[in-house]
Design brief:
There is one protein chain. This protein starts with a helix and ends in a 5-residue tail after the last helix. Strand 2 and strand 3 form a beta hairpin. The chain has 269 residues and is of the alpha+beta class. The protein has a 5-stranded antiparallel sheet with strand order 1-2-3-5-4, covered by helices on one side. A 3-stranded antiparallel sheet has the order 6-8-9, covered by helices on one side. The protein has a two-stranded antiparallel ribbon with strand order 7-10. Helix 9 runs antiparallel to helix 10. It is built from 10 helices and 10 strands.
Length: 269
């Protein structure tokens, strides 16, 4: 953390903030508090301007080319699982998906629309390696489902997708503002990618119609099929990610979630 002390000075107290990259920190001194991250995407500035993440305070480039960003460190808490069905969650996700500013910036950063074929190809390539370590029948049942339906889920509308709408990425500040944080995995894709995982994980089926109306759409059969496909593919992607990091306990938890989704879809009995 010497690079942080060099930027901030020795009078700041700096503590790791956790996260998957290990490159995030909290810093505070004399009533000032910041959330610092190394090599955040330039996308963060637009997210801040749109009010989707806490305010960006400053950005600094180090001599080695690394970029440090400082955001407001807000008092607040992550959303509870039952709070994910609140209309505010639907409204914020809709704002993100309908933002031309976010889409233009992400496209300028070189993100091209992610297709179902690309997702399936990457999952299958990863699984060839992972099968040597931990082959699981549920994984192959999921891949067979994705293969069977991949040609039926193509969609012409692409938006900025967060790609990890887990409840712990939704921050409710002490002054009652809602944010969606941790944008490291953002992609340009079918909005069903975000919607499928969120709805199948958190929203009771009998509440889907109301939730999606708050989001701004009237669901139809093709949309349901796309959400189903993406909920399975995203669940599988997270399992592979944890397996590749050697986090087998977390991979097992994610596998149980995948089994729940597939039973709900009647992919497995």
């Amino acid at each position: 953390m010497n690079w942080l002390e060099h930027i901030l000075g020795s009078n700041w107290t700096i503590t790791p903030a956790g996260g998957s990259t290990g490159e995030a920190y909290y810093a505070q001194t004399e009533g000032k508090r910041l959330f610092l991250k190394r090599n955040s995407s330039p996308f963060l500035a637009v997210l801040s301007a749109e009010g989707i993440v806490p305010k960006l305070v400053w950005t600094k480039r180090l001599e080695n080319g690394d970029v440090i960003t400082a955001q407001e460190w807000l008092e607040g808490r992550e959303l509870k699982t039952e709070e994910m069905k609140h209309p505010r969650v639907a409204a914020l996700l809709s704002k993100i998906h309908h933002s031309s500013e976010l889409l233009d910036m992400l496209m300028r950063l070189g993100k091209h629309p992610l297709t179902p074929d690309e997702i399936l190809r990457d999952l299958k390539e990863n699984q060839k390696v992972l099968d040597r370590l931990d082959p699981r029948i549920e994984i192959h049942q999921a891949i067979k489902f994705l293969e069977k339906n991949v040609h039926d889920v193509h969609h012409d509308v692409h938006v900025v997708c967060h790609c990890d709408t887990n409840h712990n990425n939704w921050l409710l500040s002490a002054d009652d503002r809602l944010y969606l944080i941790d944008w490291d995995n953002a992609m340009v894709a079918d909005p069903a990618l975000d919607l499928g995982m969120l709805l199948y994980t958190y929203i009771p089926v009998d509440y889907w119609k109301n939730w999606l109306q708050e989001y701004g759409v009237v669901p139809d059969s093709p949309m349901h099929e796309r959400m189903k496909w993406y909920s399975v593919s995203q669940a599988l992607s997270f399992i592979q990610w944890h397996q590749m990091r050697g986090e087998y306990d977390e991979a097992t938890i994610r596998t149980e979630k995948l089994k729940t989704i597939m039973k709900r879809h009647e992919i497995i009995k």
